[in-house]
Amino acid sequence: MAEEQKAKAKAEQAKGKAKETIGRAVGNERLTTEGRAEQSKGDARQAKEKTKDVFKH
Fold first, then answer.
1. Each residue's pLDDT tens digit, 28-38
2. What backbone torsions phi and psi does residue 53 show, to the nearest 5 degrees?
3. Which phi and psi (to 5°) does residue 54 adopt?
4. Is the pTM of this model over 0.85?
């Protein structure tokens, strides 16, 4: 289960980065903001999983 969550976090980060980049390229501030938010969500999920790993071992 942990590996699935880590993969989900990486996917959210990548999707967010893509949205942010596209938003900047076309001048769409909403898309840029959404991309940043998705990256943050992915970062938070990844941090949670890393914390769980620390306490597991």
1. 999 999 999 99
2. -65, -40
3. -60, -40
4. no
